[in-house]
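Take a look at the protein record below with the fold in mind.
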Amino acid sequence: MSAPDKTRRDFLKAVGVGAAAMVSSIDNTTGKTGAKKQLLTVDPRPRFDLSPYLYMQFMEPLGTTDGSVAAAWDFRTNRWRPDVVQVTRDLAPTMIRWGGCFSSYYKWKEAVGPRDKRKPMINLLWGGIETNQVGTAEFVDFCRQVKADPLMCVNFESDGRKRWTKDPFGSVRCGDAQEAREWVDYCNNPTNQLRLSHGHKDPLRIPFWQIGNETSYSKKGFDCETAAAKTVEFAKSMRKADPSIKIIGWGDSGWARRMIEVAGEHLRYIAIHHMFRPDRGQKDSPLQGTEYRKDPARTWAHLMKAYEAHEQKIKNACEQVKGLGIPLALTECHFALPGRNRCEVLSSWAAGVSYARFMNVHLRYGELLKIGTLADFCGTRWQVNAVMIPVPRGKSFLMPVAKVMKFYREHMGSSFVQVQRVPDGLDVAANRRDNTIILHVINTKRLRSITVDLGVEGHKIQSGKVYEMATDPEFEVISAMPDPLVPKVKQLNGSNWTFPPASVSAIELEVENQAG
């Protein structure tokens, strides 16, 4: 059989005779741009369930480095800024995590109860004074307002790092297992007297708790054996307060398998982080500073390859936990380019398209990756944030990474399905919801559109809608308006579609089983 005949046979099998009849010649049909159409086909059989927590965000008081939590709080009215709440509702994260390195010297009791009794603290890593006007109850309130599940990171004996066990004035900053247990009890026990005395009649109810934050990243902290043993100690103590909590243990830097061997019976997830720098070792990288504006084509090429290091990181982590019954939680993840405060390339739509490739990686590894994020959530300066907060006034807005995460969140099924055939230049991941097949399609070509014929094996496409985000890759998101990245909704007629250059699209196909 010749190659053209085989191609046509595969296409007929995928889309059915009815849809194929609409295409007179697979090899020779051309799209409106004059480009040759190619096949994009899907096997609709569910492969594994996708977690709703692949769209979490990560909130950490970042001191003088980035306004972060303090910028999101209105100290005049003691409430979250309404514009921050509104933009986060729009982003719609399924989970928000409190903590990070800040957790290693955070004393939760200093940030609960009457505001005039709360104790300020030195932010040992990020600089400045943390007022603690935003604490556990305020964090949970924010999560409830935006309909996100809260995830709390406990003080894990300062992760074994002596520099965080005391502040310069001798205040003890190390938290033990008993302190973690009391925190769980404060939040989740309906009869906790301290919380009741603070005016919170109902439990604050935090279901997810992480033990250890980047514990393996310093030789001056715990080693793996010590961390694993202490994880058991913490987990047992915390579960005495609430046996139902879902505990996440630290497992990056090759620790995952040993952590599971020692503490696995107490854990629901294993945490890893990834601060990815695709231009590491490249002195002439176009991603540094404002170099990206000088050669858009070169910048685009670098950004389109950025996902490769991330995929390798996820792949390696999955190999460590495979078959052990405990999935991964990527509770912190972002670009780590020089000039983090002003790495402005991340405000460009080119970076947004790059981030979409990261999201497709998360979907493909969704059998073992169950919690994921791609940003630091909110702040005033860092371009790695999802939400930027103008201060002292102005309307908060979504950065490209947030635009992409929101887009995926809105167009997502419950089961992963396999893409069989992908045309050159496209990055595609697929999933399904009942009889709806959803394709996440990224056109990685900066200047060229790509036309395809769509097919679903053994099913007839009844109808379809295309949700499309596309603009000039050099466009930069620097304020709430103008916003060319509002997805356009288009009707799919037939089985072919043309994806514009530098676009991120979701195609929702309503299908009918051919046998029916």
User: Anything to note?
Assistant: The chain has two domains: 3-49+415-513, 57-410. The chain is about 25% helix and 25% strand. The domain at 3-49+415-513 is CATH 2.60.40.1180 (Immunoglobulin-like). The radius of gyration is 24 Å.
